[in-house]
Amino acid sequence: MTPTWILIATVLAGGLALPARAEVRQASGNGFELENSALVQAPADRVWEAMTAGIDHWWPKDHSWWGSESTLRLDARAGGCFCELAGERQAQHLQVALVEPGQRLRLLGGLGPLQAMGLQGVAEWTLEPQGQATRVVWRYTVGGYSTTDLTALAAVVDRVQAQQLDGLVRWAGTR
């Protein structure tokens, strides 16, 4: 079984809780665009801090290269790294391209198996204050040459990102 299909089977078997809104906006054989959003019962500055400095607390360890053996960190500055460290083993998941503290964070790269497939992505997190709460919108656009039809993979990646966003909502809302 290929890593892509193992990922699909794992996600579908997991019964993931979805955030307030999850959507595959577009999907084709060579790319897709996803959008997940949720309302966090916390102000934008607290959500930002949880999202960046607290990423190791809310990003699901079953969606990292080395699980509980590793530490995730996000250096929220242009050129910074969303990296995973497990002793001598290291992985760059995404690279930071744009930082507007408390408002928007843009990262570049392919997450998980997408990286090994040679695909590129743009992940953008937007924080929108709504009274005492904050709406978090996560858009992820992926494209490139692939020997795998990405149409079916879009829904799987969307579910994984919904799980990741749910982790942020829970972590930021309880801090």
TrEMBL record:
Signal peptide (from-to): 1-22
Keywords assigned: Signal
KW DNA-binding (keyword) present: no
Record keyword Signal present: yes
Record-given protein name: SRPBCC family protein
